[in-house]
Write a structure and sequence with these properties.
heterodimer; A: alpha/beta; Elongation Factor Tu (Ef-tu), domain 3; Rossmann fold; Ubiquitin-like (UB roll); 6-stranded antiparallel beta sheet; 5-stranded parallel beta sheet; 24% helix; globular; B: mainly alpha; 12 helices
Chain lengths: 350, 294
């Protein structure tokens, strides 16, 4: 009789063990090793696949301005100030600020003013990008990021409202103290005027050249420390904003020149683990400066697409100029071959 | 004994640089070798192994780079690293397309990621001498794997049978761009291994390990794809199929693969003795994907 109990107990225990092992194996195929992590592979970042979008809507938010709604699947999220490249049917590549809803993964919105004597990009946008046309885009990238600040002043000139519009919306949503000076030739040529006036009320100063001439910018010299000043518009306006600000303070500017990958301003970089600080010259890449100190450093393409020179950033504001990293990765790392510092100093984990 | 020294063929050396590529998968069907799921999935296993595998190459070489004392070799290794990083990205970008077509690779890629990141990772052996030994072992493993990638690269550049059966042009371009770069940089991994260690026993041991791991992972990958392909009613895959397709020329031929074994194990072996750099460079100059697909 005791033998029967023993056999029954052993058999029961064996059954229980088998069940436990099976359920363990179904969650972890490499049992007895721990359950597998969610793989990194298989979720390609799409850096080697052209991103196609469809021109799904076309509007005219102001005289001489066309607004395009570009629809695609799973478009990356973006932050106010970001822009994309449009690869136009002729092969021209032009940058346009995103001015739609950053949370919408199904569409991007851009607006372009027709520049009669321009380089041909805006004419192509106006004449060839009709509804139903499929085009390739690259990006988004952000060289004009909105920093956290309790107070903002935005100065926009004409089509320069496009990067500023999502910033204004974000500042309003964050409950920040903001004001906008919006200049243009005439009210009819200024896109999104009604929207910003509705959003801001008396915080928006509209300066149409045909009504009231040029904007009064002296107030910029009296701003309290801590107010972030953003400006996008014609060169003359951006120069005037820079000149109006008090000594030692500079506005954040968005200039649409051809996407520069080299050069910029000089800055300082601290290599925290090596305990060294060096200066990166204006015409030198961060990679070449760091490599002089640490010759064994990894890099390869030197054009910001292979990703092998990625480094962790501990402090400092990054001017991302690569084509590869995702927004999450950009929070705390950079490709040192092309990206630079947006301020005066960077601290790298090297 | 001059015949025991690896003899590089100088004319086969070329300056290496990573190329920015662009492949549009929109039009690529699930069975991109028409009507031949076995061949399709056998080649598709590349997309399972290479994203993690080539990331691992880059990761290992990052640690080996400080030991390189030869400037020309360092330049080669730097070019190699960039090319491998882009290969990894390009193959990884195929997988979301497969998922869209109903073939989810996640269960297998999870295992491959574990294999390369954990099992073949940095912490497999304790710090100090064992870890240095492990680094050299992995450098030698990469040299052995690169022998096969160069072999496959050379094969795909010459696999006219794939054109004849009407394989998808974008996929063929990806394979041939990749194959051509593998042929172009085929000597780097071996030269790095020779520079850092070069021991024959290590070469033979790591070859055996690499070869068995590749065979194991590959057949497992083929069976995984065949069993999970939503369109297949009879997902059988056998070694006989592989031999048969090799004879037709749509897959590498089994005898040719077996013949490449003693070549790697020969003491006079140097990768520049096989493959054709000029053919690879010519393909790269004309490849739509490698010219940005623009």
């Amino acid at each position: 009789m005791p033998r029967f109990t023993t056999v029954a107990l052993v058999a029961g225990a064996a059954l229980l063990v088998r069940r436990a092992v099976r359920s363990r194996m179904s969650t972890a195929p490499l049992w007895p090793m721990p359950a597998l992590d969610v793989p990194v592979s298989g979720y390609g970042r799409g850096s080697t696949v052209p991103r196609k979008v469809l021109v799904a809507g076309r509007g005219t938010p102001a005289e001489g301005v066309v607004e395009l709604r570009l629809e695609g699947a799973g478009l990356p999220a973006w932050q106010p100030g970001a822009h994309i490249d449009l690869v136009l049917p002729s092969g021209l590549v032009r940058q346009y600020s995103l001015c739609g809803d950053p949370g919408d993964p199904s569409a991007y919105t851009v607006a372009a003013r027709l520049v009669e004597d321009g380089r041909g990009g805006s004419r192509e946008v106006h004449e060839q990008l009709h509804e139903g046309v499929e085009i390739e885009i690259r990006g988004p990238r952000n060289r004009f990021p909105l920093v956290d600040s309790p107070a903002y002043v935005f100065v926009a000139g004409g089509i320069g409202i496009t990067p500023v519009l999502p910033m204004v919306r974000a500042a309003e949503a964050a409950g920040a103290d903001w004001r906008l000076v919006y200049c243009g030739r005439s009210r009819a040529t200024m896109p999104y005027l009604a929207e910003v006036e509705r959003l801001g009320g008396d915080r928006v100063t509209v300066v149409a050249e045909d009504e009231s001439g040029f904007p009064e910018l002296e107030f910029l010299g009296r701003l309290p420390v801590g107010t972030a000043v953003y400006c996008c518009g014609p060169d003359g306006l951006m120069d005037a904003v820079g000149a109006a600000m008090s000594e030692g303070r500079t506005p954040r500017l968005e200039r649409f020149t051809a996407a520069a990958t080299t050069g910029g301003t000089a800055f300082e970089v601290e290599l925290r683990r090596s305990g060294r600080t060096l200066t990166v010259a204006a015409d030198q890449s961060l990679l070449s400066a760091v490599r002089a100190e640490l010759p064994g450093l990894m890099y390869s393409c030197r054009q910001g697409f292979c990703g092998t020179c990625r480094q962790r950033v501990l402090e400092g504001e990054i001017d991302h100029r690569d084509e590869l990293l995702t927004d999450d990765e950009r929070d705390d790392s950079m490709l040192i071959c092309v990206s630079r510092c947006a301020g005066k100093r960077l601290v790298l984990d090297l | 004994m001059s015949n025991t020294q690896p003899a590089p063929v100088a004319s086969e050396h070329v300056e290496l640089k990573a190329r920015k590529v662009s492949f549009d998968w929109e039009e690529t069907p699930l069975h991109w070798v028409p009507g031949d799921p076995f061949t399709t999935h056998t080649i598709n296993v590349l997309h399972l192994l290479l994203p993690a595998g080539e990331r691992w190459f880059v990761h290992v070489y990052e640690q080996a780079l400080p030991y390189v004392t030869d400037d020309r070799l360092r330049e080669d290794v730097i070019g190699f690293i960039g090319q491998e990083a882009i290969h990894s990205q390009a193959h990884d970008d195929v997988l979301p397309h497969l998922r869209k077509l109903g073939l989810d690779p996640t269960p297998y890629t999870a295992q491959v990621d574990w294999f390369f990141e954990k099992l073949l990772g940095d912490r497999t052996l304790p710090p100090g001498r064992p870890r240095r030994w492990w680094l050299m072992e992995r450098v030698a493993l990469i040299a052995a794997i690169e022998h096969y990638t160069a072999f496959l690269g050379d094969w795909v550049l010459n696999a006219d049978a794939l054109d004849r059966v009407g394989a998808d042009p974008t996929m063929l371009d990806l394979l041939r761009w990749h194959g051509a770069e593998e042929v172009e940089h085929r000597a780097v991994a071996f030269e790095l291994f020779t520079h850092l260690d070069g021991g024959y026993r290590r070469r033979a041991r790591t070859w055996a390990l690499a070869f068995s791991a590749l065979v194991f992972l590959w057949q497992r990958g083929i069976r995984f794809f065949m069993e999970n392909d939503p369109t297949l009613l009879d997902p059988k895959a056998s070694f006989a199929d592989f031999v048969r397709k090799g004879r037709q020329g749509v897959l590498p031929s089994t005898p040719a693969m077996l013949r490449s074994v003693p070549r790697y194990l020969s003491r006079a072996y140097h990768p520049s003795q096989e493959g054709d750099t000029a053919q690879a460079v010519a393909y790269l100059a004309s490849s739509p994907g490698a010219n940005g697909g623009r």
